[in-house]
């Protein structure tokens, strides 16, 4: 059990027999009346988002989410195959279970698969990945103005907005949490 005063973004809690991830929280102390914590919670199993208010200091059970390291192997007709690097056990996940991970997955990439009560609830990618540009309009000398972007297709098929100086073959560092270009690698 943890106090709702200790909630942080990304924490997982159990409520109503399911697991929720904290997306936002705000501790409110009105001038009159008792303090409370306003939260926005994402149901990890269904993806639904709810807003809930707790009394300050209220206790909620923390979800026991286990994370194990897996290696991404390949895609098989819309399913994604991962291998546990310790037991060599293979698991096949559906598109719904992996979320937006296929935008950044390359074969042999190491990821963490989260489970709760024996059910796979998601794939945790590294915060940044390095992907090669396979298609974009050519850059021109002098296109150095800031704030101007063009689309670039990466080797996974994901399209990201990049500065004008990026060319085909460049390796880019992409933030997997936001899907945005960070820098050239």
What features would you describe in this structure?
- Helices cover 2% and strands 54% of the residues.
- The chain has one helix spanning 95-98, and strands spanning 2-3, 12-15, 18-28, 36-43, 49-55, 59-60, 65-76, 79-84, 90-93, 110-116, 119-124, 128-136, 149-154, 159-163, 171-175, 180-184.
- The protein has a five-stranded antiparallel β-sheet with strand order 9-8-7-10-11. A five-stranded antiparallel β-sheet has the order 14-13-12-15-16, with no helix packed on it. A four-stranded antiparallel β-sheet has the order 2-3-4-5, with no helix packed on it.
- Strand 2 (12-15) and strand 3 form a beta hairpin.
- The longest helix has 4 residues, at 95-98.
- 18% of the residues are buried.
Number of β-strand runs = 16
Number of helices: 1
Question: pLDDT below 50 for ≥5 consecutive residues: which ranges?
Answer: none
Backbone CA Rg: 21 Å
Order of helices and strands: EEEEEEEEEHEEEEEEE
Mean pLDDT: 87
* Cα separation of the termini: 43 Å
Sheet/helix structural class:
mainly beta
Helicity, in percent?
under 10%
Side by side, the strands of the main sheet go 9-8-7-10-11
Shape: flat
Query: Main beta sheet: strand number and arrangement?
Result: 5 strands, antiparallel
Task: Report the β-strand fraction as a percent range.
Answer: over 45%
Please outline the helices and strands.
Blueprint: E1 2-3, E2 12-15, E3 18-28, E4 36-43, E5 49-55, E6 59-60, E7 65-76, E8 79-84, E9 90-93, H1 95-98, E10 110-116, E11 119-124, E12 128-136, E13 149-154, E14 159-163, E15 171-175, E16 180-184
Antiparallel strand pairs: 1-6, 2-3, 3-4, 4-5, 7-8, 7-10, 8-9, 10-11, 12-13, 12-15, 13-14, 15-16
Pathway: Protein biosynthesis; polypeptide chain elongation
Domain Translation elongation factor P/YeiP central: 67-121
GO molecular function: translation elongation factor activity
């Amino acid at each position: 059990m943890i106090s709702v005063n200790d909630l942080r973004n990304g924490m997982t809690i159990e409520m109503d027999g399911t697991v929720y991830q904290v997306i936002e929280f705000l501790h409110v102390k009105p001038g009159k009346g008792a303090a409370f914590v306003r939260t926005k919670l994402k149901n990890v199993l269904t993806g639904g988002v709810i807003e809930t208010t707790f009394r300050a200091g209220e206790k909620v059970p923390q979800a026991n989410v286990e994370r194990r390291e897996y290696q991404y192997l390949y895609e098989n007709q819309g399913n994604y195959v991962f291998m546990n690097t310790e037991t060599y056990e293979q698991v096949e996940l559906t598109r719904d279970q992996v979320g937006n991970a296929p935008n950044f997955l390359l074969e042999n990439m190491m990821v963490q698969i989260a489970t709760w009560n024996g059910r796979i609830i998601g794939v945790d990618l590294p915060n940044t990945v390095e992907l090669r540009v396979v298609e974009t309009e050519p850059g021109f000398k002098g296109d150095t103005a800031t704030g101007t972007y063009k689309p670039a297709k990466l080797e996974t098929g994901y399209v990201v907005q990049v500065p004008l100086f990026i060319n085909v073959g460049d390796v880019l560092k992409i933030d997997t949490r936001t899907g945005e270009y960070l820098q050239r690698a």
